[in-house]
Amino acid sequence: MITPTEIKFKAEKKYSAYLQSIVMDIPFDKIIILGDKKPSRNLAEYQTEITALLSQSKEKKGYGYIIKFHTISKKEIGKQDIPSEISFQTESDFLKFLHKEKEVAEFRTDYRLILSRFSELKEWIIKYPKKIIENHLQWNDLLKVCDYFTKNPKPNLYIRELPIQIHTKFIEKNKGIIKELLDILISGYIDKNETNFEKRFNLKYAESTVRFRILDKNISSHYFSEINDLNIPICQFEKLYLPIKKVFVAENKMNIFTFPLIEKSLIIFGCGFGVEILKNVEWLKHTELYYWGDIDAQGFEILSQFRGYFPNVKSILMDKLTFDKYYDDDKGTPNTNSVELNLTIEEQELYELLKENNLRLEQEKVPLEYVSKIIRP
After folding, report:
1. CB atoms near residue 323 (< 10 Å)
2. Domain count, the chain
């Protein structure tokens, strides 16, 4: 037989539909709870079950569910009345049973406030009524944000620059719900393919930066007052205009500090798989482009990734000769990659050897004298 706990669980599952009916202005209708469990065949157990069921009913508590019975006759328990229908006849009974009276009163206030300001959010409210409840204490501020963006759909400001009378971190802490609202309210002004909040809603943001070193003293002197170690936003790096012919990308940071000087060249800290940040730097396509990573499976996977952005990239110091010369019995990270890589025949053969045997030669273990000899033969 169904228990009071199971009735509450099933009633709670009907709560969202009830909230939706409020917004849709549908009058309350009796809510029926299906009791799909048969009563015990043991008379003592049956009596315990029916007593528990009745103890939480409206008949006993003055609110809650009503039980309709029908009579059965069973050999094990004799002639007994068992529930044929369990239902909440009134809205008050339903809410009091779930202890939701206060919550629903707040819900009514909040959804009416939202619709009074932005009627176009009605379908969203109907679809996600519990989000109105989850954000109960925030709707005044959420609506301030909505009001600002509907009037200024392309702010081109940082979040904390927005002239909205809210806590400075409010938008940052509530990006999820704000995104859902603005997707509806200013749909014609957003970049729907962009998942980054700031980019999606035409805001400024703290861009990723590119760390690089100028390898030509004449260039660093002429363009950067002899500064050769720089870290600038990617948008600025994309617009960099220098007389550069060769560009080297190193997987690890220390190598950009110790890399030999070369005329009309620079070296970039690739930061492993972080080389993705460079994918839109068009001017790299017009340089001699080289990638230097660890001689391990991941190093060649990064090279393949980078070559996907720039087919002109060549690997340096990632060959079998260098590996055999300086390998120091290091182990790599176990690798189960099965994706076809964009490698040359020689690179692919070394990659397979490294992956199968879990081998690694970190680029820092290659002596500077050898690096200079290879880079500047």
Report:
1. 19
2. 3
